[in-house]
Design goal:
The protein contains eleven helices and no strands. The longest helix has 31 residues. α6 runs antiparallel to α7 and α8 packs antiparallel against α10. It is mainly alpha-helical. It has a single domain, classed as Glycerol uptake facilitator protein, CATH 1.20.1080. It is globular and about 60 Å long. The N and C termini lie far apart (50 Å). Helices cover 73% and strands 0% of the residues. Pfam families: MIP (PF00230). This is Glycerol uptake facilitator protein. InterPro entries: Aquaporin-like, MIP, MIP/Aquaporin. One of its GO terms (cellular component) is plasma membrane.
Length: 264
């Protein structure tokens, strides 16, 4: 039976972890866009990656540190995560992203020159003007699939990868590498809570409807809301079927070492 107190604690952890990493990441972008800081794509990607790692370090012991609807849904479908917790977890993550935007806006309030698409980018992501909506969708799909596949690999006890204190750092490094490689295309959202929660705040705070549509024919907000979830499911399938199941059939490092001992 699911304890209400335990679920509450887990949701608070998901809220806190998401709040932490989105506040740090969006704060970095605010420094660049409204405060005159000088960051390149790699610096921004590294800050986001380290922010994710910190969020995972702080909350993993309580909730598992999903910090993303993509991870929560993938673990519910292909892992052992209780499906009854999906909505509470995602609600906590969305609220964490929303409140992170509130904090960043409050701290940088006097520095915002105007409510334009450029300053809205402090809070949320927009596609490169030169790519199509299909390219944007496939970018978010692919990079989230990659991230979730790595997370599944790092959490699989059968593949011999590093465990414990290294895992959050490796997840953060993955986020940073993805950001450096594909961030210029879509802003590497990979996370509906990181994107839609702050986007909703920006819309409520007075940015016009372009914050939802990104000036496109259909609401661009739907792409970072849906593509990461679908991509996460694909990444989970990819790892589970092509890596996880072969490991269970006897291709684990421990099984290989036993085979070598028998042959020697």
């Amino acid at each position: 039976m699911m304890s209400k107190r335990k679920l509450w604690d887990e949701c608070i952890a998901e809220f806190t972890g998401t709040l932490l990493f989105v506040t740090l990441g969006a704060g970095c972008v605010a420094g660049l866009r409204v405060a005159g800081a000088s960051y390149g794509q790699w610096e921004i990607s590294i800050i986001w990656g380290l922010a994710v790692a910190l969020g995972v370090y702080i909350t993993a012991g309580v909730s598992g540190a999903h910090l993303s609807p993509s991870v929560t849904i993938a673990l519910a479908v292909f892992g052992n995560f209780n499906k009854k917790k999906i909505i509470p977890y995602i609600s906590a993550q969305m609220l964490g992203g929303f409140m992170a935007a509130v904090i960043v806006y409050f701290l940088y309030f006097n520095l915002f020159p105007a409510k334009t698409m450029m300053t809205a980018g402090v809070f949320t992501t927009f596609p490169n003007a030169k790519i199509t909506l299909l390219q944007a969708f496939m970018t978010e799909f692919f990079i989230t699939a990659l991230l979730v596949a790595v997370i599944f690999g790092l959490s699989d006890d059968g593949n011999g990868l590093p465990r414990g204190a290294l895992t959050p750092l490796l997840v953060g490094i993955t986020v940073a590498v993805i950001g450096g490689a594909f961030g210029p295309l879509t802003g590497f959202s990979m996370n509906a809570a990181r994107d839609f929660g702050p986007r909703l705040f920006a819309w409520l705070a007075g940015w016009n409807n372009d914050v939802m549509s990104a000036g496109r024919d259909i609401p661009y907000a739907l792409i970072p809301l849906t593509a990461p979830i679908l991509g996460g499911l694909f990444g989970a399938v990819f790892y589970t079927k092509l890596i996880g199941e072969p490991l269970k059939r006897g291709h684990s490092p421990s099984a290989d070492s036993k085979d070598k001992e028998m042959m020697s």
